[in-house]
Design brief:
The complex is a heterodimer of chains A (436) and B (461). In chain A, 53% of the residues lie in helices and 7% in strands. Chain A is of the alpha/beta class and 436 residues long. Chain A folds into 4 domains: 87 residues, Fumarate Reductase Iron-sulfur Protein, Chain B, domain 2 (Orthogonal Bundle); 59 residues, no CATH class; 134 residues, Up-down Bundle (Glutathione S-transferase Yfyf (Class Pi), Chain A, domain 2); 114 residues, 3-Layer(aba) Sandwich (Rossmann fold). Chain A has a 5-stranded mixed sheet. In chain A, strands 7-6-8-9 form a 4-stranded parallel sheet, with helices on both faces. Chain A is globular and about 75 Å long. With 461 residues, chain B is α+β, with helices and mostly antiparallel strands. Chain B folds into 4 domains: 87 residues, Uridine Diphospho-n-acetylenolpyruvylglucosamine Reductase, domain 2 (2-Layer Sandwich); 119 residues, Uridine Diphospho-n-acetylenolpyruvylglucosamine Reductase, domain 3, CATH 3.30.465.10; 110 residues, 2-Layer Sandwich (Alpha-Beta Plaits), CATH 3.30.70.3450; 94 residues, Alpha-Beta Plaits. In chain B, 36% of the residues lie in helices and 20% in strands. In chain B, strands 15-12-14-13-17-18-16 form a 7-stranded antiparallel sheet, with helices on both faces. In chain B, α13 runs antiparallel to α14. The radius of gyration of chain B is 22 Å and the shape is globular. The chains are: A alpha/beta (436), B alpha+beta (461). At the A-B interface, α1, α3 and α4 of A face α2, α9 and α12 of B.
């Protein structure tokens, strides 16, 4: 059955009583002051489609794509409207109606959604090729002789944004099972897709922090994509397939915790129960899965996190909330509390810390203008704090804000909170070794 | 009435710029409603002007073609005041969002109509000043809308409502002329107090484009307290005791059990779910006076059998409690699909009686109701949690509302304390104010706007 606003439980649409409390929290409304670009405005359009008062149109499709999907409205909404469900349904309907598709967008969609992000080995292979391209100096050479101009316009715009691929991917850094001296919990570590290609070191750091806190860490070398990209972009069937593969690889009954260290993935991962509710075989497993899934920061504080005795020197750090960690998973206090555990680290609050940076999945590709405005706003606040490090826990935000800071000529570096913690543990270890 | 012709639209675009005239359904459908449940209207043309002159030109244009104008700000009204009528032009004023000046010497602030209410208080805060009216929607409502609806808030008991802070207005009249009323003088008895006619006129007499507001020195101290009760009557009686002790706190808010549960589901700040009433109390002013009053209020609450009484640890917790209270109406929407909010107000010594009556009526008609509101000023918000698709239940809701209104009027109360009449309450206005008063209001409207172009069908038919 194709997802559709008409078939959706109508009470989810009715839940919005259009009080307007979401408007000041919505980046696209604040930027434009047009109701259509607000959460309640979009919901009224969805409701008009469900009521048969509005036909699915390119303008409707545009609006659904103009939404960042940052879910700040869900945090602001006193009525508890399930906006992400509404947005995903609307996007899926737009997708299946074939609206707003050009040949190139369909091509890239097929390559990414149905190709690379369905096949983890192929994705790593593509990553390796890209790494070679970057490492062999081809990137610089191609740019110099203007060969990149031969790329189709979409790719030409994206080429400079392409992140640097890591030298080693997660399986080269983490053994399938690693055991601490005294094991208290058995956990699974999800390595992610983009995370694995670009920030594999963060996966190593996450494993180290878990080990230091008494966890036996299981990290299978080949892991499927969690399906978050697919669900957010109207590919519901693929999202379900991927969720099942994930559950097969990590039977939830075998673990005390299933750990995600990427805000965006985590928010999707903890809702497998709803995604697979209609599946006779997987529904109960998915329900159990949801109870085991934890964001890394959440897990550490729930089960007690060892405070490092050695710090990283005098360090002023500010923290940016990734949308899906704060609005989706409601994990806001824990990353800050973890940072405060590090001796000598001074945490300064970032103004508008939970305001979207414009990365928003593939938003910086699909809506470059609005994305850039949000990035400039974010970077201004970050520089204003006077911090030397910006901590954030989502690969999309990390890449986006790093690019923004580079453009602004700022020396501020980006480091995930878990990495800072891992470095502090290592510093402590080193000190211990040098003493003994 | 047919849609505007392409030539007419071209004229509108020439006035405000083409990006500020919206006509496609994807652009206009979101302007078909405000914050009022179950009310919507046909939204065909939305115009977003950028200045008083543009507004005047749009009004003149509308007059030429006999088009009605329905004005709106952020669309958070709770009586359907900005719900569009057939064939109207929706005039959305959010682009007029500049604070023009803060005059610390004369204690005034001048702002365009589309400035967000909370932004006014934030702007004067830098000067150690304070804009007291704080409607529940203050983070998004516009000051023009507040003046047009004469909005209240949580501090009404001590500080009054929007009307008490309006010193001057700039208004576009139904024929497009621009007029100024009032000034920065504390005393001014030159002629009729025309500004007062526009305050609370709900967009039916003119379009408010600029406001001159009175502000106060910011209170040096503030203390917020929370008391929980096993019986609503005890909470109401505490309020009477506080007033009898010659204390005027700035806030005395209550939530009933249903509302507490919903607010806690949203805000998760540890409100006790198992009590029948929560009383949120706040006193502000000179630190010594605040300390003394707070002690007295706590003692009075305990003496009336409050189960638990506590003081907010710090400003952050006080703010959290007040924000939680402000979310009450929307939070109640968690329970059922449709949330119908009422605004009846009674003299405050009748409040306990009224709260008990609402509960009785709900029980009699087998309806779910959550009640919260401003206990200190008798302003009640009984909120029916229902489903607009269930015709039988909706009929019972209307019967219950009828009984609540009848009781309110019998107790010497009003059908609306702070939300306005709009569409939602116009059926009852005549009963409340009496024939002659109702006729006079209509005569004024007719004299002023003989073609009934400004917000037709609101307040009265």
């Amino acid at each position: 059955m194709k997802p559709s606003l008409k078939l959706l439980d109508y009470s989810i649409l009715q839940q919005c009583m259009h009080c307007g409390m979401c408007l000041p929290a919505c980046p696209t409304y604040v930027a434009t002051k047009k109701e259509r670009h607000s959460p309640r405005g979009r919901i009224s359009l969805m409701r008009a489609v469900a009521d048969g008062e509005l036909k699915l149109s390119p303008a409707f499709a545009d609006e659904m794509s103009y939404c960042l999907g940052c879910l700040a409205c869900e945090t602001a909404c006193p009525a508890g409207v399930d906006y992400s469900n509404l947005l995903e349904t609307a996007r899926a309907e737009v997708q299946s109606a074939g609206l707003n598709q050009t040949f190139t967008s369909r091509f890239w969609r097929t390559v990414t959604m149905r190709g690379l992000f369905m096949r983890p080995r192929l994705l790593r292979f593509a990553g390796r090729l890209l790494w070679l391209y970057q490492r062999l100096g081809l990137q610089t050479a191609f740019r110099k002789i203007g060969l990149t101009k031969l790329l189709p316009p979409d790719l030409r715009r994206l080429e400079p944004q392409c992140p640097t691929i890591a030298t080693k991917f997660s399986p080269q850094l983490i053994r399938p099972v690693e055991t601490p001296a005294k094991s208290r919990h058995r956990v699974a570590l999800l390595t992610g897709c983009v995370q694995d290609l670009v920030f594999a070191e963060l996966n190593r750091d996450t494993a180290d922090v878990l080990l230091a806190n008494g966890c036996e860490v299981h990290t299978p070398p080949v892991q499927p994509c969690c399906g978050s990209l697919h669900a957010h972009n109207g590919e519901a069937a693929a999202a379900k397939t991927l969720a099942k593969r994930m559950i097969d690889l990590f039977p939830p009954a075998q673990f005390d915790g299933i750990i995600s260290n990427s805000g965006g993935c985590g928010n999707h991962l903890r809702h497998y129960g709803a995604l697979l509710a209609d599946d006779p075989v997987y529904a109960p497993l998915a329900k159990l899965w949801d109870t085991k899934l934890r964001d890394i920061h959440e897990w550490l504080l729930e089960y007690g996190c060892l405070a490092p005795r050695t710090g990283l020197g005098d360090l002023t750090v500010t923290y940016h909330d990734s949308c899906h960690l704060t609005h989706g998973q409601k994990v806001t206090k824990q990353p800050r509390d973890l940072l405060k555990l590090i001796p000598g680290l001074k945490l300064v609050e970032l103004p508008e810390a939970n305001w979207c940076c414009g990365s928003a999945g593939i938003y910086n590709i699909t809506q470059p203008v609005q994305s850039e405005q949000l990035l400039v706003r974010k970077v201004g606040h970050v520089i204003g704090t006077g911090a030397s490090v910006l901590a954030t826990a989502n690969p999309g935000c990390h890449l986006q804000i790093a690019r923004g800071l580079r453009q602004a000529g700022s020396p501020i570096t980006l480091v995930p909170p878990v990495t800072l913690l891992a470095r502090a543990y290592r510093a402590q270890q080193k000190r211990k070794e040098s003493i003994t | 009435m047919s849609a505007l012709s392409p030539a007419q639209l071209a004229r509108l675009r020439a006035i405000v710029g083409s990006e500020n005239v919206l006509t496609s359904p994807e652009d206009t459908i979101p302007y078909g409603f405000d914050g009022t449940a179950a009310l919507k209207g046909p939204a065909e043309t939305v115009v977003l002007p950028g200045s008083t002159e543009e507004i005047s030109a749009v009004v003149k244009f509308a007059g030429e073609y006999g088009r009605a104008i329905v004005t709106r700000g952020s669309g958070t009204g709770l009586s359907g005041g900005s719900v569009p009528s057939e064939g109207c032009i929706i005039l959305c004023l959010t682009r007029l969002d500049k604070i023009l000046s803060v005059d610390a010497a004369n204690l005034t602030v001048r702002a365009q109509c589309g400035v967000i209410t909370a932004a006014i208080d934030a702007a004067v805060l830098q000067h150690g000043l304070f804009y007291p009216p704080d409607p529940g929607s203050m983070k998004i409502s516009t000051i023009g809308g507040n003046v047009a609806e004469n909005s209240g808030g949580l501090r009404g008991l001590k500080y009054g409502v929007t009307r008490d802070y309006v010193m001057g207005l700039e208004v576009v009249l139904p024929d497009g002329r621009i007029a100024q009323f009032g000034n920065a003088c504390v005393k001014d008895v030159a002629g009729y107090s025309m500004k007062d006619l526009f305050i609370g006129s709900e967009g039916t007499l003119g379009i408010i484009t600029e406001v001159l507001l009175k502000v106060l020195p910011r209170p040096a101290a503030r203390r917020t307290m929370l008391a929980s009760y096993d019986r609503m009557e005890d909470a109401a009686q505490t309020v009477s005791d506080i007033i009898a002790a010659k204390i005027i706190p700035c806030t005395l808010e209550f939530l009933d059990r249903m509302t507490i549960g919903c607010v806690e589901d949203y805000a998760k700040i540890g409100l006790p779910r198992d009590c029948e009433a929560l009383l949120l109390m706040e006193t502000d002013g000179h630190p010594a006076a605040v300390a003394e009053e707070a002690e007295q209020m706590l003692a009075l609450a305990r003496a009336r059998g409050a189960r638990d009484v506590r003081v907010a640890r710090d400003d952050a917790e006080a703010l959290q409690l007040a924000s939680a209270r402000r979310s009450a109406f929307s939070a109640l929407a968690r329970v059922r699909p449709t949330t119908i909010l009422e605004d009846v107000t009674v003299p405050r010594d009748k409040l306990a009686e009224m709260v008990a009556f609402v509960a009785e009526v709900a029980k009699k008609h087998n309806l779910l109701v959550g009640t919260f509101g401003h206990m200190g000023d008798g302003n009640l918000h009984p909120t029916f949690l229902t489903d607009e698709r269930d015709a039988a239940e909706m009929a019972r809701v209307h019967e219950a509302l009828e009984e609540i209104v009848t009781k309110t009027l019998a107790l010497g109360g009003t059908i609306t304390g702070e939300h306005g009449v709009g569409l939602a309450k116009k059926a009852w206005l005549r009963r409340q104010v009496g024939e002659n008063s109702h006729d006079l209001m209509r005569e004024i409207k007719r004299a002023w706007d003989p073609r009934n172009l400004l917000n037709p069908g609101k307040i009265f038919d």
